[in-house]
Specification:
The chain is an alpha/beta fold and 388 residues long. The chain has twelve helices and seven strands. 45% of the residues are buried. Bound molecules: 2-acetamido-2-deoxy-beta-D-glucopyranose (NAG) (3 copies). One 2-acetamido-2-deoxy-beta-D-glucopyranose binds next to loops.
């Protein structure tokens, strides 16, 4: 209720600020909504709808309990932001490209997998937990999908009802939420903050290359999330020691958040440059960092308690222990107990499992970004096909 109100207030402020001067004169107002027929998503666990689960096993219960009633390939209790995006555009939830069973790609495909990075990692998933499906691999998948979906569709019958139309590739929305794992990867290899910062340009160059490749394959409309405040997540705070002087008022680890903001500043520059390089592209940069940090630093305002504690977890300051993660079992009094049983009301929590946001938090993040208030060009989701 209160957050709805604050969105409204912000929206009014925005209209007043821009409206009074030139908003009413901008032809943008007269433009039609986009009617995206499909979404192609690239990313990590923040937007995985079943990719990693298809290959490495389901995200374990109680994942999925709030919305699906069973594990559903998402690393949260319910829906992720891309689910809210798809729904609001009138499209079905995205099938994971890697999911060989029951998938329907008529309105797009999801190439994201949990643990994905922009840069290919030199460690295996067993060693580091990072997915081998880095952004370049996701692009290879897309490249194949673009072609093979059409030869398959041409067979007619049921195939026509499972694959997107050729023309939809240039009318689709291409969404991105990736980068967080590139930052943590260095820290988990014991790199210092300055060492992590030093490789950010390489991450951004590789990101830009993929956007350009998609453009050359006909993609035109891009919706790019920046990265969140990783220094507020238990799995980072538990694993990487910092000084108490480096903890901010919200209880988050400042050095990691600062690196995330450095990454975001670089990403914004990349987006500005891509706008000049790709004349037919409409690119929207979305500041999800801002809203994620707002939920964590002012939880009461948004209906949350204990924003730094995992809902589904076990032990320690943050109810998080990487050896006993959400959905694993621990022995208690000789009995096996499911980690997560104690998580009674996920809707009151920002953090689901020490790493990911709850469905309730994802919904609020979506509510804050859908109208364009956190878009650098003020594009709302439905207007994201227009060059602002
Ligand atoms: C992996 O190793 C290659 C070859 O040494 C190097 O160029 C690349 O930057 C490394 N990737 C990462 C993520 O460290
Ligand atoms: C795939 O989804 C679309 C849209 O929801 C639907 O029209 C189509 O019939 C589905 N395909 C199959 C084979 O069920
Ligand atoms: C990082 O440092 C910790 C603590 O010294 C050590 O246990 C761990 O093996 C190191 N990790 C790597 C990848 O070097």
């Amino acid at each position: 209720m209160e957050s709805q109100l604050s969105i409204t207030v912000l929206a009014v402020l925005f209209l007043l600020r821009s409206g009074g001067i030139n908003y009413g004169l901008r032809p943008a107002l007269a433009l039609a909504p986009c009617n995206f027929p499909a979404i192609f998503n690239f990313g990590d666990s923040n937007s995985d709808t079943g990719g990693l689960s298809a290959v490495y096993g389901q995200a374990a219960a109680p994942a999925g309990e709030t919305y699906f009633g069973h594990p559903a390939g998402r690393y949260t209790d319910g829906r992720v932001i891309i689910d809210f995006i798809a729904h609001s555009l009138g499209l079905p939830f995205l099938s994971a490209y890697l999911d060989a069973v029951g998938s329907n790609f008529t309105h797009g495909a999801n190439f994201a997998t949990a643990g994905s990075t922009v840069r290919p990692q030199n460690t295996t998933i067993q060693q580091s937990g990072f997915s081998p499906i880095s952004l370049n691999v996701q692009y290879n998948e897309f490249y194949q999908f673009r072609r093979r979906s059409q030869t398959t569709r041409a067979k007619g019958g049921v195939f026509e009802k499972l694959m997107p139309k050729e023309e939809d590739f240039s009318r689709a929305l291409y969404t991105f939420d990736i980068g967080q794992n590139d930052l943590t990867a260095g820290y988990f290899l014991n790199m210092s903050t300055s060492e992590v910062r030093a490789y950010i340009p390489d991450v951004l160059i590789q990101f830009a290359t993929i956007v350009k490749n998609i453009y050359h394959e006909g993609g035109r409309y891009f919706w790019i999330h920046n990265t969140g405040p990783v220094g507020c997540l238990p799995y980072v705070m538990e694993r990487i020691p910092i000084l108490t002087s480096q903890v901010d008022r919200a209880g988050c680890a400042s050095p990691f958040n600062k690196v995330a903001r450095d990454f975001n500043r670089g990403l914004k520059h990349v987006v500005d440059r891509l706008r000049r390089q790709l004349p037919l592209a409409a690119i929207t940069y979305v500041d999800v960092y801002y809203v994620k940090y707002a939920l964590i630093s002012r939880p009461k305002r948004y209906g949350f308690t204990e924003p730094l504690r995992a809902c589904c977890g076990h032990g320690g300051k943050y109810n998080y222990d990487k050896n006993f993660g959400c959905g694993s079992t621990i022995k208690r009094g000789g009995k096996d107990v499911l980690v997560g049983k104690s998580c009674e009301d996920p809707s009151k929590h920002v953090n689901w499992d020490g790493v990911h946001f709850t469905e309730a938090a994802n919904k609020q993040i979506f509510d804050h970004i859908v109208g364009g208030l956190l878009s650098d060009n003020k594009n709302s989701l439905t207007m994201a096909c227009h060059r602002a």
